[in-house]
Amino acid sequence: MTSVGEKQHYTLALIQRLTEHIPDDMLVGLLYDIGCQLERSWRKFKFFDNSQCVFYFILFYSPLIL
Fold first, then answer.
1. Which residue has the higher pLDDT, 8 or 20?
2. Structure confidence by residue, pLDDT tens digits, 17-65
3. What's the domain of life for this entry (predicted)?
4. 62 lies in a domain?
5. Residue pair 11/51 in contact by the 8 Å Cβ criterion
6. In whole angstroms, what is the distance from residue 56 CA to residue 52 CA?
7. Region of residue 16 (phi > 0: left; psi between -120 and 50: alpha; otherwise: beta)
8. How far is C-alpha 62 from the chain's CA centre?
9. Domain range for residue 34?
């Protein structure tokens, strides 16, 4: 989780801080370019007990050429 490539712990720390300051019944949608990796770490390390966040994945990994 702290590998040089992604540094997911920064993102997870920000999300944790966000969930501390919003009501428990509020749902947060997250769009992140490495969402698939982030959600896997989120669930693997059990950062949060509640499911306040929903992850959305970006489908375009290749550059857009016009």
1. 20
2. 887 888 888 877 777 665 567 767 777 777 665 566 666 666 555 555 5
3. Eukaryota
4. no
5. no
6. 13
7. alpha
8. 21
9. 8-57
